[in-house]
Amino acid sequence: MSKLIAVAFMTAGLLAFAQDPPKDPPKPAATGLTVTLTLDKDKYVVGDEIQAEVKVENTTGRDVEIAELMYEERSVSFQVKATWAGVIKVYDLAITRPDPNVAMRLALPKVTLANGRSLTLAHRIPTLAAGPIEVTAVFAGSGTAEKSVASKAEVTGTSLTAVLDTTSGAIQLDLDHVNAPANVSNFVTLARLHFYDDMAFHRVVKGSWVQSGCPYGLGIGNPGYSLKGEPSETSLHGEGTVSMSGSDKQGYTGSQFFICLNNLPALDKKFTIIGKVGQASLESVKAIGRVDTDKNTDRPKTDVKIKKVTIAPK
């Protein structure tokens, strides 16, 4: 019996030795891609849009599978370094589609990029204020962040303002590009796409705030994506403050915004302030705040609308 046991152990050992050696661990996602960023000009005036072309070329020596190129945080985004009034500000321009709650559970569409071939994406970046600017393209669709060399340009002029032409009068917003550059960029982009045209103030909370920016007019909509909020430690929610409302995921914003009717310190450090209403426009905001509303929904009984939004240098 002992001999049989010994033979069994020897046989098992020989079989184990004869098996294929363990396979190498999976290789990381494709690296060695070349990312190139080209700007259409090297000099801009505040209010211009930078036309940026991102090129991703396969220089790996083999065919690779990568995410499709799209302006999306998990695919293509931009890092911006701007110098405004001698102060350097570095921020990311990135959005997540359709919403972080959903997007993180969905894989991006993939394509096979042959060796030596390339894909390109064009995107427009708003200029917010005067000063030198550096833009870097980031492609994350290979599983690692591949960056381009920074492209440099000069921006002249002052800064941007937004004018909301509403059924209750004009409302001028002085945009806060210093504390919320990514969210101001998003607001400017949506306004230029006429996203806010003919949009209702769907909620008026008496003595507190008026709210708009929902494409459905119900307070549940967004532009089809979200972006990270930029709450400031120093900006306060006083009368006339304009802030982005929260999106479906905490810490993110979309297209909805509200304008404060009074000082609301409970909101400080929680919401992204994108600007402030000019003193001459406060009466138009207060007029919206005085309309009759449904006591259950805070919705105005008679529609109050944004007819259009105009973005222009100060």
Architecture overview:
With 314 residues, this protein is mainly β. The chain folds into 2 domains: 34-157, Immunoglobulins (Immunoglobulin-like, Sandwich); 159-313, Cyclophilin, CATH 2.40.100.10. 13% of the residues lie in helices and 41% in strands. The chain has 4 helices and 20 strands. The longest helix has 17 residues, at 2-18. The radius of gyration is 26 Å and the shape is globular. The N and C termini lie far apart (97 Å).
Number of domains: 2
Could you tell me the number of beta strands?
20
SS content category: mainly beta
Proportion of strand residues: 35-45%
Under CATH, the topology of the largest domain is which?
A: Cyclophilin
Q: State the fourth-level CATH superfamily of the largest domain.
A: Cyclophilin-like
Going by CATH, the architecture of the largest domain would be Beta Barrel
CATH class category of the largest domain: Mainly Beta
Shape label = globular
* Biggest sheet statistics: 15 strands, mixed
End-to-end span in angstroms? 97 Å
Number of helices: 4
* Nearest-integer average pLDDT: 90
Gyration radius (Cα, Å) is 26 Å
In the predicted model, the low-confidence regions spanning at least 5 consecutive residues are 1-30
